[in-house]
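Consider the subject:
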Amino acid sequence: MPGKHVDKAMRARSFGAAADVYERARPGYPDAAVDWLVPEGARTVLDLGAGTGKLSRSLVARGLDVVAIEPLAEMREALAAAVPEVRALAGTAEEIPLPDASVDAITVAQAWHWVDPERATAEAARVLRPGGTLGLIWNRRDDRVDWIVQLTEVMGSAEVEVMDMDAVEVGPPFGPTESFVTDWERPMDVDLMVEMAASRSYVITATPRRRQEILEGVRRVVEADPHLGTDFALPYRTYCYRATLPA
């Protein structure tokens, strides 16, 4: 539907205005997930939809040659400042500015739900070398925890960001999609929690009144729980998916 397409595009662009908040508040990715996502022997990795480089820095730390593709200029600027070792280029998952068969692996962190999967899959296959992998990864708050359920009720979500993690598939020409899940915790305080909520697309694009309601509600949930205190651990589940291009 045209309205939904426009709304999705608007939400995707909204991150540029909040790049600094995104960089401060969003989490990185656990080592177990990154190690699983990148195949042994990979040397050149494309981090697609790289944002401010939350995953890029973990790839660089593993000695990989990393190219980051990010459509929003504000996000690329934050990425360049945080991870100067990365070559950051303007582009999208549907139009990757790289030659055919030029990378060993592609990672897509917290971004595949924003793309046209058919076009993005075809482009990924084009720039990957035979036998290369396309890896998708999402951090999700662990909703098996009671206070996280309350937090999600207060924060709400955008339709585009509601995904069934059991239904993620890469599709042809890639082989079967493998999956991996790992649990971890992130050190957190209430102010950072509020900033993290403020970095969500549907909060960025909300009316000032609705935005204030959400952020005040997040603070109330955290401060009302006697088990959390000033500093606490935010539980995450990280979902990873990987598919291989036939050699």
In short: The longest strand covers residues 128-141. The chain has one domain: 2-143+159-187+235-244. The mean pLDDT is 89. The chain has ten helices and seven strands.
